Amino acid sequence: MNKKLPFRFFTTHPRVVILEWDRKPDNTLLNQLIDFQKHILRRFKEVTQITQGYVSLMLFHNTEVHHIADYSKKLYLIFESLPTKAVKKGRLWQIPVCYDNSFALDLKALALKLNLSPEALVELHTSASYQVYFIGFLPGFLYLGGLPKVLEHPRKIKPSPHVPQGSVGIGGKQTGIYPFDSPGGWYVIGKTPYPLFEPQKKKPCFAQTGDSIQFVPISKSEFMELDRQKKNGSLKLKPS
């Protein structure tokens, strides 16, 4: 019986429920999770917020959750009744990245560890399309899938105490952009001038779950010009 259940159901708090799928993340599951959330929020008024992970959903309620067995069964039935849809494509964002040595603090070191030239590493990194699976860790931090396997490498043993805002890094099976100055254990291979999180806007984060990201290499002079535009407020990021 348990083998047929689409996800595991458990509580971490009287008002918090976690649903977890025992499978690898992919575009099919991503679209199911996006659709499932809409149905849950529409049918359960007590659910005030849903946080998505690679293969999980965390449901926050405004009251304590009772009748766990009945509740989990209702969720199972909703998920299993979701219509089969073609994988929906979100927006594509092309993010300019400067891979110059002045920004790519760990590019040479990582290339050496991967037995690649820095140029080959950059070419591989910019040739892929990355899926936005969810947003977290820091406001505006995008969790991306799609890093070429040849670029996978464990995070640093000793994290850096300060990673500059806009830094593009690789850690484990992921690549991502630091939206703020922060400590970090990823190998920094470049930097983007674009702001990733703008709290003054109605939608502070430019991207959303289901969108795609593509990194576009730019020169240092192009970076400086875009950075100048950012400082005077004229730099705008639009989907392709």
Kindly describe this structure.
This protein is of the alpha+beta class. It has a four-stranded antiparallel β-sheet with strand order 1-2-4-3, with helices on one face. Strand 3 and strand 4 form a beta hairpin. The mean pLDDT is 90. The chain is elongated, with a radius of gyration of 20 Å. Helix content is 25%, strand content 28%. It has two domains: 79 residues, Gyrase A, domain 2; 140 residues, Cyclophilin (Beta Barrel). It contains five helices and 13 strands.
In short:
With 240 residues, the protein is of the alpha+beta class. The protein has helices at residues 27-43, 68-80, 107-113, 118-127, 220-231, and strands at 8-13, 16-20, 47-52, 56-61, 92-98, 130-135, 142-145, 160-163, 167-171, 174-177, 182-184, 187-191, 212-218.
Note the overall shape. elongated
**Backbone structural class:** alpha+beta
CATH homologous superfamily identity of the largest domain: Cyclophilin-like
The total tally of domains equals 2
| Terminal CA distance | 46 Å
What helical percentage do the residues reach?
10-25%
- In this structure, how is the largest beta sheet organized? 4 strands, antiparallel
| pLDDT averaged residue by residue | 90
The secondary-structure element order is: EEHEEHEHHEEEEEEEEH
In the CATH hierarchy, the architecture of the largest domain is: Beta Barrel
Topology at a glance:
Elements: E1 8-13, E2 16-20, H1 27-43, E3 47-52, E4 56-61, H2 68-80, E5 92-98, H3 107-113, H4 118-127, E6 130-135, E7 142-145, E8 160-163, E9 167-171, E10 174-177, E11 182-184, E12 187-191, E13 212-218, H5 220-231
Parallel strand pairs: 5-13
Antiparallel strand pairs: 1-2, 2-4, 3-4, 6-7, 6-13, 8-11, 9-10, 9-12
